[in-house]
Structures are given as structure tokens and as C-alpha cells.
Amino acid sequence: MKKDWIKVENFLDKDMTNLLYKHALNANKRFNFLKSFGINVNTFGDLYGNDEDDQALGDHSCYGDLIFDTLLEEKRNEFENITDTELVSQYSYYRTYTNGTELERHIDRESCEMSATFCLGYDSDYSWPIWFKDSSDNEIAVEMQPGDLVIYKGTKLEHWREPFKGNHHSQLFFHYTKKDGQYDKKFDGRPELGLPASKILNEWITNMGNSAQVPVQVREISI
For the chain, which domains are there? Predict the structure, then answer.
């Protein structure tokens, strides 16, 4: 991709976007319901998401949700056409931001070489922009409506969001790397889509008394 970032309007149609938005909000409600009974939901390896991400502490986030991971892989060819780059799917992530949350300036880790952020929906009086500092040191605010996305070079482009003013704002992130590039581990080192991060998966396997390490051998089925 020659440009630092590309905005694509209406990448997801209205019905799909609304479905995914409701999925994120319902997952947030489920998380809070379980937590209200004193259940430490954060120990379940993102099965129900978590609220301990340092980038937005207290807000509901989720790594590797199966629906979003599936969409990550299904849309890979479209992203390849937009960016003119062969890509490897890594992982999806989504977060529902709440009032006052600020996303500090940062660049992403190596498995986020080519990233996309989607606006799923929001309850506020404005479209909360994401900011980029491009290769010419220009600081640019990009607004998105539900269904829009921005593709950007996650490991090179500094990006951030100023404190949010509203009830909530849900964003979906897709992360890819360049095929045959420096980081070419499919699915962020996981054997399959929809699984927790490989570090957590290895801890589960170890705790079950199995010395095997990810990636593990799995039987494939025809679909």
C-alpha cells in the first residue's frame, strides 16, 4: 500500500453493520451481567471479552471473537485488492468505548502490520474521529460513520483518539500482515480462528497437564 491510510465508506452494508453492532453491545451486556455476580470473567481467555486492556481500561474489549475472526478471513481478498498487497490474516479485536475514554498515541505490534478500524455504531452527538500522524508529520483527524473503515499501516503510523464524549462507541479492528514478510505467522500464532491468544492457549494446555505447545495438530474437516 503506497498511502499511509485509506478510508473506505460503506465497506459493510447497513444490515451487516447493525447486526455486528448489536453483537458487540449484547456481548458487553453479557459481560457485565456475569461480572455482577462476582465472576472474574477476565480469566476466561476472552471467551466473554475483558475490561483489563490498558489502552481502554474498564471498557469491554474482545480478542478473536469467532464471528469477527471469520469475517477477518472472509474479507481478506477485498483488503488485498484495496491495498494491492498479499496479506495473511492475524486476528480481530473489538471494543466498546465509554464516556471519557482516551486512546493514547501509539503504534501497533508486529502482527498488526496492515490494520483496519471499522465504525460499528455509537450513541453520542458526533462521529468520534481517529487521529493519524502520517509520514510527513501531518496530524489528521478521520471521522467514520457506521459501516465505514480506515485501513492504515499499524506498525508505522502513530494513531490515537482524544477523550470520548458520549454514552458509547463501538469499533472493530482487523489485523493483517504482508505475505512472506517479517511476521508471517497465520492467525497470530493460533492453530485456528476464534481461539484466545496463543499465550493464553498454551497456559490452558499446561494447566490441563498437557505439555504440547501451540501450534498443535488438528484434524481438518471438509465444509
Answer: 5-207 (2.60.120.620)
Euclidean distance between CA atoms 32 and 181, whole angstroms:
40
Backbone angles phi, psi at 71, to 5 degrees: -65, -35
Mean pLDDT, the chain cut into blocks of 10 residues (223 residues total): 95 98 98 96 92 96 97 98 97 98 95 97 98 94 98 96 98 96 90 90 74 48 46
Helix (H) / strand (E) element for 217: namely none
What 3-state DSSP class applies to 205?
A: helix
User: Pick from 13, 43, 22, 4: which is nearest to 170 by CA?
Assistant: 22
For residue 35, the Cα-to-chain-centroid distance in whole angstroms is: 22
Contact 153, 114 (CB under 8 A): yes
